[in-house]
Design a protein that fits this description.
It contains 3 helices and 45 strands. By secondary structure, it is mostly beta strands. The strands form 10 sheets. Strands 34, 35, 36, 37, 38, 41, 42, 43, 44 and 45 form a 10-stranded mixed β-sheet that branches. The longest helix is centred in the first third of the chain and has 19 residues, at 5-23. The structure holds 2-acetamido-2-deoxy-beta-D-glucopyranose (2 copies) and copper (II) ion.
């Protein structure tokens, strides 16, 4: 039989899909073949971006999410009546989705993950901690549990009751020394923190010299910032002494904190309006550029002035230049859209997409009954805004049709688009109601993916093919990336390295963008339309902490089809 290329490709997809069905055990959701997924529609246009609803679902509500590989995403929910079951028969709480293979796999979790935090260690394992009471004997209490996710293991390893104090709604962050910070939270679930529930301490993992946690360290800042101080905002501030210098913001107060000596270095002016849970805004370290000496500027967007169901959300962002001798908040109108619970996603081009959230109310569950609901967050903000940190201009993007409010997430992907999932502003799985539990995933493609500009393909780094597993690299390294282009148009290459952190409750803990120095671009004389791009990695771990990162090459600000995954140490 003679078959042409196109037919053999289709045959391959068909046989591949068939094998997948046969090989999968009962616990893997039966998903449509990849071909069907591609038939879904992109709605929108090149100016305002497009939305595509995937035919695949998350299986659990995507309350928390992180990227574990070029095509893999892990979602974490709380214990609720999800139809998908774990291997042990309990409802699934966490799943792994592979967008290339189009498979969804329930993971093993036996402790309460509602609501928790996570962060990548320098060695490439994610540490996850915190949660709630559980439902013994089927679900252990989660507040003192540490959970580990190593993508090469592919499932959770839990150590229940290991930590010394209880944490619900803590914050985590990758540190300069490859360890992770576990900060704050309350000792039990609450709509609003209080002195009785507050846990104004932090801990660092792994501990100093054995496997037993170090004692918690007091952090009075979290007493001063009650009651709006859960899931506080934290970023490492670049410095030349390799210090863990932290910008911390809770409620309206920001400080510079030297973690290595446990001292507050600077008290910044207050920002207008409360910004942290349940008045949830979003925080990011703006892109750090080598030609600007990695000048550190934080940006805090959205929030809420009043703890009122009917109150309009905050339509402002503040930028604070941490290198200024007299730091002051520079305020704007957040693109004109009020938003509580916005997600912020830094693109490989250095632009920022703010999306998701509500235009009224605050973070929390629906009150009232199913028939007579009182939504504490409503009026979904369907339109993302695209922000350029250099020109400080916002562009309103095309709207989604799906409400993404309390307990929803968004992340940049290695392929340059944004994956959006979740939303469940109520205490249990609920369907047939205005804001039902949302299992659908969406892709938002920003305008930079919708131009005629050609997208580079990274083939290898110093000869090691990408797309297999993380390539080990070190600070200050010169890397040679072999990059191919579709045609012989002359490309204009730039590069960035991005940490895709742990996303929950409108925070991307650890999200970091660093521009890379491009030293040289040489045409590869051995192959058509192929280039050798030499880049230099950042000089020290205060610029971007050790851990798993993605390197993007861009052509005229349009990102490569898939970033190269590296482990930086
Ligand atoms: C990384 O370190 C942590 C804590 O020390 C350990 O639990 C984990 O197994 C390590 N991961 C790898 C991939 O070595
Ligand atoms: C990559 O190759 C360059 C040029 O040979 C070399 O300087 C650099 O150390 C290499 N980096 C790695 C991570 O192998
Ligand atoms: Cu929550």
């Amino acid at each position: 039989m003679i078959i042409n290329m196109k037919n053999s490709f289709l045959l391959f997809l068909l046989v591949g899909g068939f094998l997948l069905t046969i090989l999968s055990n009962n616990n893997v959701l039966a998903l449509p073949a990849p071909m069907q997924k591609r038939q879904t529609q992109q709605v929108g246009d090149a100016n305002g971006g497009t939305w595509e609803i995937l035919a695949t679902q998350t299986g659990v509500n995507a309350m928390h999410m992180f990227v574990t590989g070029p095509s893999k995403f892990v979602f974490v929910d709380k214990l609720e009546a999800n139809a998908l079951k774990q291997p042990n028969g309990q409802p699934a709480v966490s799943t792994e989705f592979d967008i290339d293979a189009n498979t969804l796999r329930p993971l093993d979790v036996t402790s309460d993950t509602f609501c928790s935090a996570g962060s990548w260690l320098g060695n490439g394992t994610l540490v996850h901690t915190g949660g709630d009471n559980g439902n013994p004997p089927n679900f252990a209490p989660g507040q003192q549990t540490l959970r580990f996710y190593d993508p090469q293991v592919g499932d959770w390893v839990e150590r229940i009751g290991l930590m010394l104090s209880k944490r619900w709604y803590p914050t985590m962050l990758p540190l300069v020394n490859g360890k992770v910070l576990i900060l704050g939270g309350s000792i039990g679930g609450t709509g609003l923190n209080s002195a009785a529930l507050n846990n104004p301490t932090y801990n660092i993992w792994p501990p100093s010299n054995n496997d037993t946690p170090d004692p918690d360290v007091q952090f009075p800042f979290l007493t001063d910032t009650l009651p709006y101080n859960l899931y506080v905002f934290v970023h490492i501030v670049p410095n030349s002494q390799n210090k863990n210098l932290l910008f911390v913001l809770a409620n309206q107060q920001g400080i510079l904190f030297d973690l290595d000596t446990a001292t507050t270095v600077t008290n910044y002016p207050k920002i207008a309006v409360q910004r942290t849970y349940p008045q949830t805004g979003s925080s990011l370290m703006l892109p750090l550029w080598p030609n600007d000496n990695y000048k550190a500027e934080v940006m805090i967007c959205g929030g809420q002035t009043a703890f009122e169901v009917t109150s309009t959300a905050e339509a402002s962002c503040g930028r604070l230049d941490l290198t200024s001798a007299t730091p002051a908040w520079e305020m704007d109108t957040f693109g004109g859209i009020p938003r509580v619970m916005p997600d912020s996603v830094i693109l490989p081009s250095g632009q920022v997409v703010f999306l998701n959230g509500a235009q009224t109310g605050f973070a929390g569950f629906r009150k009232g009954t199913k028939l007579n609901p009182l939504w504490v967050n409503s009026n979904p903000a369907f339109n993302p805004v695209l922000y350029d940190p250099t020109s400080k201009v916002y562009a309103k993007m095309n709207p989604s049709t799906i409400a993404r409010m309390y307990h929803s997430v968004a992340t940049l992907t290695p392929d340059g688009y944004i994956l959006v999932a979740g939303s469940n502003p109520q205490a249990s799985v609920q369907t047939g109601i205005l804001f039902s539990t949302e299992y659908r995933m969406e892709i938002f493609r920003p305008p930079y993916l919708l131009t005629n500009t050609q997208r580079p393909t990274i083939l290898n780094i110093n000869g090691t093919a990408i797309n297999q597993y993380r390539i080990p690299v070190t600070y200050g390294d010169n890397l040679l990336l072999v990059v191919s282009m579709p045609t012989d148009e002359t490309p204009s290459f730039t590069a960035s390295i991005i940490h895709l952190g742990f996303v929950t409750h409108s925070q991307n803990m650890g999200q970091r963008f660093v521009g890379l120095v491009v030293n040289a671009v040489n045409y590869d004389v051995t192959t058509a339309n192929r280039y050798i791009v030499s880049v230099t990695l950042p000089p020290n771990p205060t610029i971007i902490a050790p851990g798993p990162h993605f390197i993007y090459i861009l052509n005229n600000n349009v990102p490569c089809v898939r970033a190269a995954e590296v482990l930086l140490n």
